Description:
Blueprint lengths: L1 E10 L6 E11 L4 E5 L6 H8 L7 E6 L2 E2 L5 H11 E4 L11 H11 L10 H11 L15 H13 L5 E5 L7 H18 L2 E5 L3 H4 L4 E6 L2 E4 L23
Parallel strand pairs: 3-8, 3-9, 6-7, 7-8
Antiparallel strand pairs: 1-2, 1-4, 4-5, 9-10
Helix pairs in contact: 3-4, 3-5, 4-5, 5-6
The protein binds adenosine-5'-diphosphate and magnesium ion.
Amino acid sequence: xIRIYNATKSYxxxxxxxxxxxGVSLEVPAGQFVxxxxxxxxxxxxxxxxxxxxxxxxxxxVYLDERPIHRMGEHELTLFRREKVGIVFQSFNLLPTLTVxxxxxxxxxxxxxxxxxGGTLRERTLALLDEVGLGKRARHMLHQLSGGETQRAAxxxxxxxxxxVLLADExxxxxxxxxxxxxVRMLRELGRNNGTTIVMVTHSREVAGMADRLVQMRDGKxxxxxxxxxxxxxxxxxxxxxxxxxx
Length: 247
Ligand SMILES: Nc1ncnc2c1ncn2[C@@H]1O[C@H](COP(=O)(O)OP(=O)(O)O)[C@@H](O)[C@H]1O
Ligand SMILES: [Mg+2]
């Protein structure tokens, strides 16, 4: 589902260049929930940005859903991301002056894709808001929500179009441990129910422990990945995927 080979990326040029990724390779089977940990500055967010098509590699290859996103142009990437990738980054694209419902609905308004589940966009939105415990908050303005509620709204929005891939960058930052556990449990359950492949950055061992696999990074490299050979859990409704290895 996600395959990344020798991903190399630096910022800046010449003397002041900073290497953010120094040859990262990682394969994540469909439906797996991966936690990504490592010291600040080791390249975790950069890796998620690359996977989400929000930034480009200098060297290396990235395949999402068997599509080589390292070869896509900006326009193609935008369309691809809209349909295939759910993004839960700190306040990424959430609009404070829209209602919770409008925020969650937005990717559906921007996409030509049919709403998953067969109902209307609004029905899907309200069902997801119920699932993340925000059913009663649909008409509130986003800025009226607490931190944990905002995270859950971001999660609902990321899942609206049932993306095969979900990327979350510290989705539990600023939350206490009980609220963190709730958000991650929700992420895991919603992911399993949808057969979604999840990569989540976290600083919390406790949160990481809820994932199927823990990948550790340091200095722009993967330094520990004991779960590299672990098969994906039996996904409840994993779509028949085209994950046959390419020659
Ligand atoms: N847009 C940017 N411009 C310049 N340097 C950056 C940029 N983004 C990240 N970096 C640098 O790349 C390295 C990796 O950053 P990042 O991926 O954000 O690490 P992490 O998420 O693990 O804390 C750091 O040294 C950081 O300062
Ligand atoms: Mg980061």
